[in-house]
């Protein structure tokens, strides 16, 4: 699979990304001039943190033969009212009553292995170039 992501503009405020066999669709909310037909890019960013966390919980449970059926993860955020930027992200791992208590801190540690979170804490360098086609 080619690792490149190709972005294209199907109309309105929609921006789609082609990645391998997938097309990832985004749109802006109606209040920002979009049609609200898909998550915004920032929503996908937050969802990637939540689903990455979920993946690591899933693998943790599967590797130990633990049930993950009644586990849920809720991502909450706290915004700075002045800057409107998110200052804190809370990842709540909701465990069922019968989840072995001895694994509570280990399941938290597994979420801290989320590669999306790790890239946020140690971000790559961004190089943005405008290339004129000939």
Describe the structure.
This protein is α+β, with helices and mostly antiparallel strands and 134 residues long. The protein has 2 domains: 1-38; 39-124, K homology (KH) domain (GMP Synthetase, Chain A, domain 3), CATH 3.30.300. 29% of the residues lie in helices and 25% in strands. It contains 3 helices and 5 strands. The chain has helices spanning 41-64, 104-111, 115-121; strands at 6-11, 14-19, 22-26, 72-79, 86-94. The protein has a 3-stranded antiparallel β-sheet, with no helix packed on it. Strands 4-5 form a two-stranded antiparallel ribbon. A hairpin with a 6-residue loop joins strand 4 and strand 5. Helix 1 (41-64) crosses helix 2. The longest helix is centred in the middle third of the chain and has 24 residues, at 41-64. It is globular, with a radius of gyration of 18 Å. The two termini are 27 Å apart. 6% of the residues are buried.
In short:
Helix content is 29%, strand content 25%. The chain is of the alpha+beta class and 134 residues long.
What fold name stands as the CATH topology of the largest domain? GMP Synthetase, Chain A, domain 3
* CATH H-level superfamily title of the largest domain: K homology (KH) domain
Shape: globular
The tally of domains stands at: 2
Total E-strand runs: 5
Indicate the mean pLDDT. 96
**Which regions are unreliable across 5 or more consecutive residues at pLDDT < 50?**
none
Largest sheet: 3 strands, antiparallel
**Which band does the percent of strand residues land in?**
25-35%
The helix content is 25-40%
- The order of strands across the largest sheet is 1-2-3
Instruction: Spell the H/E element sequence.
Output: EEEHEEHH
Number of helices: 3
Distance between the termini: 27 Å
- Give me the Rg, rounded: 18 Å
């Amino acid at each position: 699979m080619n690792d490149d992501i190709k972005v294209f503009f199907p109309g309105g405020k929609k921006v789609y990304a082609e990645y391998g066999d997938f097309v990832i669709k985004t749109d802006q909310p109606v209040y920002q001039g979009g049609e609200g037909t898909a998550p915004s890019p920032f929503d996908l960013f937050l969802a990637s943190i939540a689903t990455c966390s979920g993946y690591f919980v899933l693998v943790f449970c599967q590797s130990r033969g633990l049930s993950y059926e009644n586990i849920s993860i809720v991502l909450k955020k706290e915004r700075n009212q002045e800057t409107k930027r998110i200052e804190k992200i809370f990842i709540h791992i909701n465990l069922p009553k019968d989840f072995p208590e001895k694994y509570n801190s280990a399941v938290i540690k597994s979420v801290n292995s989320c590669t999306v979170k790790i890239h946020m804490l140690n971000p790559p360098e961004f190089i943005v170039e405008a290339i004129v086609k000939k």
